[in-house]
Structure formats: C-alpha cells, structure tokens
Amino acid sequence: MRATARGWTAVWLVVLALVQAAAFVAVWRVAVHTEIGQWVDTVALTGNRIGQDAIDGPVNRILNAMSVVSLLAATAMIGFIALIRGRIALAITATLLIAGANLSTQLLKHGLSRPDYGIDPDRVAVGNSLPSGHTTVAASVAVALVLVLPARVRAVSAFLAAGYAAVAGVATLSAGWHRPSDAVAAYLVVGVWAAMAGLVLLITQREQAEVAPGDAHRLAALVLGIGGVLALVACGFALAWLVDLRDTGPEDLTRRPLFVGYAGSAAGIAGTMAVVMALVLTVVHRLVPRVKG
C-alpha cells in the first residue's frame, strides 16, 4: 500500500478504537450507575421468562458449549488457518485479539463497581456482571475468524460469525445469565481489541503489499451496518416507550412491557454486534491484503 493509504487506515483504526471505548464507558455509566439504566436492564432480564420453556434447551446448549476448552480449540483452529495461509503475523495477532479481549472482560467484570439502587434485590449478591464473558468468547472468535479466512469467503463468514455472536449474546439474556448491557459491552470490548489488532497488522505489513479493491466487500459491510443501525433504532424506540413506566417495579409490570423490554434489548444486542462486524469488514481487506508482497 502507499504510505498515504496506510496512514489513513491507521487513523481510521485509532478512531474506531476510541469511539468504541467511549461507547463502552457510556454503556457502563448509564446501565450500571443510573437508576433508570438498572431498571431497564432488570425489566429486560425479567422479561426473559416469556416463552422461556420453549427455548430453554437450545439456549443452554449454546451457552454450555462455550468453555475454556472450546475457546482454546477455537483459538488453535484460527491460528492454524492463518499459518496454513503463510500468515505468521496474522496467526499471532488473531490469537492476541482473542486472549486480550477475554482477559480484559474478566478484569473489567471484577474491577468495575455496581451500586445498589434497590431495583434488582435478587441479584445484589452477584455484583457487577458487565461485560459478559460468554458473549466476549463468541464475539472474539467470530471477529478473529473473519480476519484469518481468505477474502473469497470473508463476506459470507462475516454474516455467519456475526449471527453466531449475536445469538450467543441474546442467549445470555434468555437464560437469565446476563443483563443486555453486559452483552453490548462485551461486543465493544471486542471491537476495541479488533481495532488494536488491526494496527498491529498494519505495522507488521510489508511496504510492497498490494490490496485488491475487489476484496473490500463494501456491499456486505453496508448491509450489516444498516441492519445493525435499524436494530439499534428499534431498540431505542422500544426502550423509550418503556421508560414511561419507570415508576413501576419490574416484577409488577404486565406481560406487554416485559416483552417490549426483552425484545427491544435483544434487538440492541444483535444490532451492536452487526455494527461491530460491519466496521471490521470495512477495513480488513487493507489489513490482510491478498498479495503480501
């Protein structure tokens, strides 16, 4: 790539990292350190009881499949894919992305505070649960997989990987394991690490590397991005309607507002993952060029 193009790509990655880090702080401050944020989270979590019997089995299977062993196996597979393509730096960077995102999530979960406003007394003893570890596992593996796969299958894999990570995030809500803000925060943690991993790939890239314009997958990124934004807008409308009932305790709400809170939050979870993956897809062809040089 030309030095100018590399410079603008580096600027774009720094902006992405900063924006997603700022979004993480905003989600944490609003969802955890305000009464209305905790109330909305609790309403969505209470609403998971609607239809839970029908989805309990599949949800548990999805979540129980995410273990330390499965994470190590997925990381090894991703590194192997990069190595057989002759991309040593990519193998190392993808591994660091997964390890860094998951380690950061655990440190944040145990380091961040959660004040008790008396809104969710049943879970006070649990303390802070943001970000979600299971969601971070799914999202980090999904993003790393898109990085290491060849360009010809990258767009399809981005949709499948984003779908898998979104389902995992919603599953944590459906199972009652995590609040919706926990899953959203996990995606943002992965997004920050993806941007930093991109900077590493850019620095280690050879000067004579050639980027194929056809590998940009602009249409796929646009579809993912627009779909994600529409889901976030739907989430915003749902939660805006719900806020009018904030003087009512979550356990005292009727079925309709509980369902609106749950469905709106699920849309927000899926929309966030779609936007994060769209951002990855817009720049990955410059980070992993077809011709290494």
TrEMBL record:
- Listed Pfam families: PAP2 (PF01569)
- Residues forming the Phosphatidic acid phosphatase type 2/haloperoxidase domain are 90-198
Q: Which SMART domains match?
A: acidPPc
**Coiled coil feature spans:** none
The family database entries (Gene3D superfamilies) matched by this protein are listed as: Phosphatidic acid phosphatase type 2/haloperoxidase
Q: State the species of origin.
A: Micromonospora arborensis
Q: Which residues cross the membrane?
A: 62-81, 88-108, 128-149, 156-178, 184-204, 216-242, 262-284
* Signal peptide feature range: none
Superkingdom as given in the UniProt entry: Bacteria
Which InterPro entries is this protein grouped with?
PAP2/HPO, PAP2/HPO_sf
> Which keywords describe this protein according to UniProt?
Membrane, Transmembrane, Transmembrane helix
Under the heading SUPFAM superfamilies, the entry gives: Acid phosphatase/Vanadium-dependent haloperoxidase (SSF48317)
- In its UniProt entry, what is this protein called? PA-phosphatase
